[in-house]
Amino acid sequence: MAETKKSSKFFTPGWIQVVVAFVVAIVTQGFGIYHFGMLKVPMTEALGAQPAEVALGFSIYALAAGFASLVVGDVINKIKLRGSMLCSAVLFSGGFLILGLMTEIWQVYVAYVVMGIGSALGGMVILSGIPNNWFNKRRGIATAIIWSAMFPGSLVVGQIIPAATVSGNWQMAPFALAGIAFVVLVVGAFLLKWQPQEVGLLPDGMTEEEAAAQAEAAGAAKLVGLTRGEALKTTTFWFIAIAFALIGIGEQGPFQNFPAYIVGNGFDLAVAGAFMSAISLSGVVGKLASGVIIDAVGPRIAYCILNSLAVVGLVLIIFVGDNIVLLFASSILFGVALSSSAVCFSTATAMYLGPKHFGAIYGFVFLGKPICDAIGVPLVAAVSGTALGFSGAFGICAVFVAGSTISMFMVRKNKKLVQMEEEAAKELQAEVAAQ
Q: Which of 110, 111, 190, 390 is 20 to 30 A from 405 (CA-CA)?
């Protein structure tokens, strides 16, 4: 193994990567997720379209992002992380520009295809891979910090879109978001590094001696792990993937329809924006909590705890929709679990299947999520228009959250990875002894 640099025990360069990835996540995840619920109302009015027609736009975005994520690992191998990020800058911001210029519903769909591909090239796989590549002992909290960026993203969106809408020119909102996104992604392209080994470092700033002392640390240092083909044959992969898919309906289905639910209960769009920000703030707490719990007991238990709270939160929201105080209070339980899946499933993939081929594997783990996102958002919108109303729609979502929790509980670390880590430890010990 090549000689590695030594890092401080209290600060490693991995935290610089976390900070940069955090800012990138504000854009590709915060803007990407939160803008739709806020723009849906003015876009529907401007187009004179049905809400379900406009809701299809988010489904297209989710599907485009999901299927594009399948090749992100391969893209990084061919044109490096920088190339992927620069492509993301052009496409993600370009999607917002198309939204600001659109006059017909089909143009909305085109915008979301372009934006979805751009989001994938600078989003889920990369933002999950960086902390999992740069950290071993602290990968949970590192990943959680990055995904907490969705909160400041929601604040930016929650200010820009209502302000533009009130001024009578809502199209200025996507233009502003496009400009911010382009600058952030271009800068991020030149600052982010995919793996610490690229710059002569090891995860957590470890020395070779420290890595050799523990099998899992040795595996991270030596970059061991199952290939994509091997992972697809394991129950570990499928339980993680199924859990991730089911949460798509249970999480994004209600989340993207909360603004319509609140406006339908007699409150204005500004209240809806505040509600979405409140959920996001709760999500920050939940993500950070999930990171701490993951580093203590692993992603499986962390996910089960947080998403049990989400089920309770959804059930409570059903019964308090006309009371804004109780509605905000109940949303905290849902918010705490919101997007903790991004933290739990990415760390589970790295910990239970290995970091070596994370990019190639995680794109497949993630695929079911956007597919179910695409189903969940219009499903909730459609069911809410029937006799079941939002109560029935949110109840269905609670069942999917419960199913996701059960599937994650069934996940176990792959035995072949355990053997790889033990062999890596022996290899490192031999190398250290020979020095």
A: 390
pTM metric for this prediction: 0.81
d(CA 44, CA 260): 11
Q: Which two tokens stand for residue 5?
A: 């640099």
| Whole-Å CA distances, 141 to 22, 217, 258 | 12, 17, 28
Q: Rounded CA gap, 365 and 57, in Å?
A: 23
Spatial distance between the Cα atoms of 269 and 319, rounded to a whole number of angstroms: 21
Report the phi/psi class of residue 8: left, alpha or beta, with left for phi > 0 and alpha for psi in -120 to 50. beta
* CA dihedral of 261, 375, 56, 324, whole degrees rounded to 10: 10
Q: How far apart are CA 429 and CA 221, in angstroms?
A: 12
* Pairwise CA distance, residues 404 & 197, whole Å: 35
Alpha carbons 63 and 372: distance in angstroms, whole number: 9
Distance CA 221, CA 358 (A): 14
Residues across the chain: 435
Domain 14-206+214-434, CATH: 1.20.1250.20
Structure tokens at 168: 């009578």
Whether the Cβ atoms of residue 185 and residue 123 lie closer than 8 Å to each other: no
Least Cα distance to 239 among 338, 354, 124, 349 occurs for 349
CB atoms closer than 10 angstroms to residue 319 = 12
Each residue's pLDDT tens digit, 96-153: 999 888 888 898 899 999 999 999 999 889 999 999 999 988 889 999 999 888 888 8
